[in-house]
């Protein structure tokens, strides 16, 4: 069953949907034909190395930058055309927090809340206090922001996204600058927001973070979307392979070939040869125990057998390239 | 369909109006709450104070030397206000207005708060209007500060009496106070066009100092061009053309010609540069 978002007015099948979203800066293509599909109620990780176009995509989602081509729809409504109806229901943290250093934390939130078209002044103070409490900043509410640490500013930025009840939260690198404890609090916060029915779109370059809190993910590389889907599916798409240790390498190869598995040498050890074969290459989900059964039946002495599944990190690196070379 | 329940619409309308005005209130609070604005206003207030003290400690000013009205200060303290307003027209007022108007959009972009205001969502047109209204508020407060500080320090250091106008008529101090307010209003109108130029320049950059400096330079250039007789055809179109026309506020009866011409000219600048600012800002990518 496809979960549907929105209660009462305006139901939608996807919280965020982009089609062919493209952004040029002069000759350079920053975002290239991105088709995002973020299901309602998901915690959606938006992964990619630095410079892969994540923030530019987010700017286009929120109407801060105009798309060179393609369309964006948030909560079932066209952006930026319907920003008046959409944005009050969206909380955002974009490319780090930004505040008036000469105002207190609470005054900053009041100011940004007052900027909204449909916010109710009568409830402002209460909402500001609650948002500050939610990120653990109540004690520093009256302090000027220039006296805040990086982590406190980050929390204040998250508090700003939580000023009103939101159906969608777009959080760009929400744990930047936070200590491990703060990171954990943000993870819990994201979970509780999702539990309350909001869709949370989190960009990150930290895989571990995404693996811990997200239900879905998309991977960007050099401006293109190279993978997206439920986290479990993304992991599964990463091939699993078997690792076999046997002294009967030649015989094992022929048995594996009979099963449709191409074995490659993985080096030799004192008690035999190591053979590697990709399981998913066989197509119709061959089970590891079947492979072992066939090998033994074929007279192969199996001295070691393991199934190695690619971690999301292997997959991420496979998709986006390794090292510090930022994809161009 | 259920009929509209009477009474439910009213609070909704009131709420909408409250929220529409709350960004304006917030803008004024931020503008006049920050230390920089106070420093600018204090600097402006220092002009009449310096003039008054200089006249007080020195011997009598020979008539006809120095800025107009200077020689009259020792007889009547209210002339400190007139002198100070006259002295601050060419540079000090445009300087402070340039700082405020140049900061409007570029300052928010530089802090990064622009993206959060727009995501709030403030609406680009609404934000631009509120920002310009804030700059206008400063245009009103700035000359008023000079005039009121001048009247206060003048009254403190010198005798206050009837004021002889440029037309030769004599008015009593209460009416002279009204004239000070009228001149402040004249100067506020005079600075409205420059503010619109500053607003436009502010939409072009994310470096507020650049927009501020450019605005001040524009005001100086306009005044220099206004001095060149070769460019006489251009003079009526320069926004600084009527800046010194406030002498008409010191005649009896009041002459409104220069006030009206000035207001029309400033209105033209507001329309042109407001449109340019709008054209630039509504399509601009906010990447800061």
UniProtKB/TrEMBL annotation, chain A:
UniProt keyword annotations, A-Z: ATP-binding, Nucleotide-binding, Transport
Residue ranges occupied by any ABC transporter domain in the UniProt entry: 16-247
Gene3D superfamilies cross-referenced by the UniProt entry: P-loop containing nucleotide triphosphate hydrolases
Short name of any one Pfam family annotated for the protein: ABC_tran
KW Nucleotide-binding (keyword) present: yes
Keyword ATP-binding: yes
GO terms for MF: ATP binding; ATP hydrolysis activity
Family to which this protein belongs: Belongs to the ABC transporter superfamily.
Protein name in UniProt: ABC transporter
Naturally occurring in which organism (per UniProt): Arthrobacter nitrophenolicus
């Amino acid at each position: 069953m496809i979960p549907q978002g929105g209660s009462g007015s305006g139901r939608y099948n996807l919280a965020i949907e982009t089609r062919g979203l493209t952004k040029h800066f002069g000759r350079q293509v920053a975002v290239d034909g991105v088709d995002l599909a973020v299901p309602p109620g998901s915690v959606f990780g938006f992964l990619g190395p630095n410079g892969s176009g994540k923030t530019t995509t987010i700017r286009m989602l929120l109407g801060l930058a105009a798309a060179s081509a393609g369309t964006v729809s948030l909560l079932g409504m066209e952006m930026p055309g319907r920003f008046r109806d959409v944005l009050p229901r969206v909380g955002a943290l974009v490319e780090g927090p930004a505040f008036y250093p000469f105002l207190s934390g609470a005054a900053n939130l009041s100011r940004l809340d007052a900027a909204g078209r449909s916010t109710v002044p009568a409830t402002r103070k209460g909402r500001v206090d609650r948002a500050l409490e939610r990120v653990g900043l109540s004690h520093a509410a009256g302090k000027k922001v220039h006296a805040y640490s990086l982590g406190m500013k980050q929390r204040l930025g998250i508090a700003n996204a939580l000023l009103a009840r939101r159906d969608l939260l777009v959080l760009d690198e929400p744990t930047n600058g936070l200590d491990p404890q703060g990171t954990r609090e943000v993870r819990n916060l994201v979970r509780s927001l999702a539990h309350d029915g909001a869709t949370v779109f989190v960009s990150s370059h930290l895989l571990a973070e995404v693996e811990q809190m997200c239900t879905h993910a998309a991977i960007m590389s050099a401006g293109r979307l190279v993978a997206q889907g439920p986290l479990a599916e993304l992991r599964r798409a990463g091939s699993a392979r078997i690792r076999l240790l046997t002294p009967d390498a030649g015989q094992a190869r022929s048995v594996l070939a009979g099963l449709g598995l191409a074995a490659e040498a993985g080096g030799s050890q004192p008690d035999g040869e190591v053979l590697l074969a990709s399981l998913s290459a066989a197509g119709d989900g061959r089970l590891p125990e079947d492979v072992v059964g066939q090998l033994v039946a074929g007279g192969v002495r199996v001295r070691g057998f393991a199934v190695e599944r690619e971690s999301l990190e292997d997959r991420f690196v496979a998709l986006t390239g390794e090292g510090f070379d930022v994809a161009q | 369909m259920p009929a509209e329940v009477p009474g439910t619409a009213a609070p909704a309308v009131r709420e909408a109006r409250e929220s529409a005005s709350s960004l304006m209130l917030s803008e004024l609070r931020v503008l006049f709450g920050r230390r920089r604005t106070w420093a600018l206003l204090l600097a402006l207030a220092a002009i009449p104070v310096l003039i008054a003290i200089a006249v007080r400690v020195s011997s009598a000013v020979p008539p006809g030397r120095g800025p107009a009205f200077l020689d009259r200060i020792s007889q009547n303290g209210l002339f400190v206000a007139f002198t100070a307003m006259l002295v601050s027209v060419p540079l000090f007022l445009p300087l402070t207005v340039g700082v405020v108007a140049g900061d409007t959009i570029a300052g928010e972009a530089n802090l990064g708060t622009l993206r959060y205001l727009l995501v709030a969502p403030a609406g680009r047109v609404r934000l631009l209007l509120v920002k310009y209204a804030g700059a206008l508020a400063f245009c009103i407060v700035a000359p008023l500060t000079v005039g009121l500080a001048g009247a206060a320090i003048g009254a403190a250091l010198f005798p206050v009496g009837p004021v002889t106008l440029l037309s030769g008529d004599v008015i009593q101090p209460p009416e002279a106070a009204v004239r000070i307010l009228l001149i402040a209003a004249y100067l506020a109108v005079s600075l409205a066009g420059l503010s619109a130029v500053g607003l436009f320049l502010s939409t072009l950059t994310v470096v507020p100092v650049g927009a501020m400096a450019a605005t001040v330079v524009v005001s100086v250039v306009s005044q220099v061009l206004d001095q060149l007789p070769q460019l006489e055809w251009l003079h009526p179109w320069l926004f600084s053309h009527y800046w010194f026309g406030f002498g008409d506020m010191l005649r009896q009866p009041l002459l409104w010609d220069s006030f009206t011409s000035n207001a029309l000219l400033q209105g033209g600048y507001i329309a042109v540069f407001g449109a340019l600012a709008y054209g630039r800002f509504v399509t601009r990518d906010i990447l800061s």
